[in-house]
Amino acid sequence: MDWLFEPLLFLLPFGAWWLWRRANPTAEPSGPVLGLAAAGVVLMLGGAVIYGFSRAQDRHAVYVPPRLGPDGEIIPGHVVPAR
Predict the structure, then answer these.
(1) Which of 6, 20, 66, 81 is most buried by its number of CB atoms within 10 A?
(2) Which positions ≥6 away from 29 have C-beta within 8 Å?
């Protein structure tokens, strides 16, 4: 049943919106609500862009995937700079 939890969390806001629309079929969201929603979208996109630029690696760097070391310990994945 664990596989069901994440899709339900994803669908929960859509279900809440659908219930609100069923309970208030003629009601429209007010201007401040739409403004706050637009601000949230802009902040989310801006945060994603900033995060992407802050985590960017050198174009020619090589990613070394995680592996098992000689003593059975996991060596985490890392990026090796270009030579």
Answers:
(1) 20
(2) 37
Query: What is the spatial distance between Cα 54 and Cα 33, in angstroms, rounded to a whole number?
Result: 31
Name the DSSP letter for residue 65: -
Pairing of strands 62-64, 67-68: unpaired
Q: Are 74 and 66 in contact (CB under 8 A)?
A: yes
82 pLDDT band, cuts 50/70/90, is: confident
Residues comprising the chain, all counted: 83
Residues 25, 6: Cα–Cα separation, whole Å: 29
Whole-number pLDDT of residue 18: 93
